[in-house]
Amino acid sequence: xxxxxxxxxxxxxxxxxxxxxxxxxxxxxxxxxxxxxxxxxxxxxxxxxxxxxxxxxxxxxxxxxxxxxxxxxxxxxxxxxxxxxxxxxxxxxxxxxxxxxxxxxxxxxxxxxxxxxxxxxxxxxxxxxxxxxxxxxxxxxxxxxxxxxxxx
Length: 152
Known about the structure:
Blueprint: E1 9-11, H1 13-20, H2 26-30, H3 32-36, E2 38-41, H4 42-50, H5 55-70, E3 74-75, H6 79-96, H7 101-117, E4 120-122, H8 126-138, E5 144-146
Parallel strand pairs: 1-2, 1-4, 2-3, 4-5
Helix pairs in contact: 6-7, 7-8
């Protein structure tokens, strides 16, 4: 898919889910070059594992994690990212009002991991991640976002 931004990509959970269902993103599993520049964060992997419905799906996910790990593209937020996510969520509460901690904590960890690895976050959930982009900018961090639904 030529419209994808250059450099490393970090895919949000929803992108993997839609691809696994054969919905909108065949380029993800069909283009080895895209896979080779994609980072899988443990936060997304955990969300994907939580949604598996049977052993076959779990084995497919095991293979995906192993493949990313073999490329050196399996990442996990370090301890300071977890602390920063909590601090940023507290700040977000003051700026945006009531925040659903459980839902947004994972999204913020994913955003922080994209920033830490220098990857563009590929997500359809641009509304929520635009909020985190703004919040991260106040912390002098740049979150790059890309919505593949806008170019398909």
